[in-house]
């Protein structure tokens, strides 16, 4: 999916919601366990119930890998069920030396090799340029690079300042922006720190930002929008647990839709404040 | 596998060789392609031919994921074929927020969840403490944390110096050593820079170091040993392509054994220089 299509989708749906499919087989309604692939059935029902309210689905690969081969089967099936008009994100946090990153890129971007055809993958920056560039060779695919994450440990290294008083996450953005433009590169920025978006936007005025940490992790959508929205919207705000586990009963998909709609409405208010049409 | 067992193995085998199973289905001998799982058959023959000469096998997960479900099947089968006396490394470069890293830990360390029971996993440090600690909760399992990698892009961020003139890779080691001791924590240090081991050993005198980059990537075993060996050996030197693709013909396992033996003999010379008995 290219940038124009993504922006069109945001305008049409009045939403920049990303639904996170961090699906834990131990947390889904028990009646699904008799299905041949309970996790895929769960995801399918979540997608059916929410796809007109969100512009993206993010699959957290860890939750699938933890179940071995069966989990990988659920992952492939789910990735192929994401509607074409929604940006599919493999939240995989990959990154390795060049020839290995190329293999990871095939895993998520090349359906002939792997059976999966995501639009984007999250990548860890620690290993530098040649660990990221192989993902950028695929047309209309995106790298979503970790910049400032939402977890407590993010302060351990991401906030280290160099001799010019620049934090590591700033160096990451400044450097990575020389590898690709905002049509191909997004950044992960945690929502737990609204004012940090000011710094991010200084270095990345045009890039889309994938924002986890609204909801279960405690960030405020209003703060994120105040500091993070740009003329193309420029935000994908993720919610996982608050949507997919809105109910633990047979009505889980209905409740997921209600929660997704609640967030979509909040997003519409923010887009209206911003005169985004 | 605990540290004492690893050191015993090194003493017994006079080797600190790690064989890297970066197995690409497009590079293995064609006669294997008629097997039901060609990559596993290849790995099995490599392991059968080399397990008395090495103390570890490193599986690069990217090469398996690139083949989707079939690749994940080869990964699980291979992981279970690694002999108990060899340290099994999932070279997966994972790392995410706490509850997600816990899922990755289950993927590689919990056979009841995932079918895999590796001894160790490589982890990327960018997200900090809570992204690493879940892997450390598993008894007798190791985290192998990226410190100074062997690729060109490693200089982009790993060499950034803070206000106290400390490079990021030094901060990573100094900080991570407060999370676990040298019985549970190793570091990845690229062999392309022999003298860098002096700096590493200043911060990590006791930790084992996993050293890629000897052979295809151009590092010298003698330099690595001069600066990197410690009283417990403290090194695992990986070779992947030079061993597994030593021949492209039906004699690939025989030639792999010859190359592994050549490296083991070189290692024995270095251990003797160091009076390591």
UniProtKB/TrEMBL annotation, chains A, B:
Task: Tell me if Lyase is a UniProt keyword of this record.
Answer: yes
Q: What is its EC number?
A: 4.1.1.23
List UniProt keywords, sorted A-Z.
Answer: Decarboxylase, Lyase, Pyrimidine biosynthesis
- State the SMART domains in the record: OMPdecase
InterPro entries for this protein: Aldolase_TIM, OMPdecase_type-2, OMPdeCOase_dom, RibuloseP-bd_barrel
The answer to whether the entry has keyword rRNA-binding is: no
What residue stretches are annotated with the Orotidine 5'-phosphate decarboxylase domain? 16-256
Q: Where does this protein act, in terms of pathway? A: Pyrimidine metabolism; UMP biosynthesis via de novo pathway; UMP from orotate: step 2/2
Q: Which Gene Ontology molecular function entries are recorded, alphabetically? A: orotidine-5'-phosphate decarboxylase activity
**Catalysed reaction per UniProt?**
orotidine 5'-phosphate + H(+) = UMP + CO2
GO BP, sorted A to Z: 'de novo' pyrimidine nucleobase biosynthetic process; 'de novo' UMP biosynthetic process
PANTHER family, A to Z: OROTIDINE 5'-PHOSPHATE DECARBOXYLASE (PTHR43375)
What the record says about family reads: Belongs to the OMP decarboxylase family. Type 2 subfamily.
The protein, known as: Orotidine-5'-phosphate decarboxylase
Which organism is the protein's source?
Answer: Hufsiella ginkgonis
Q: Which gene encodes it?
A: pyrF
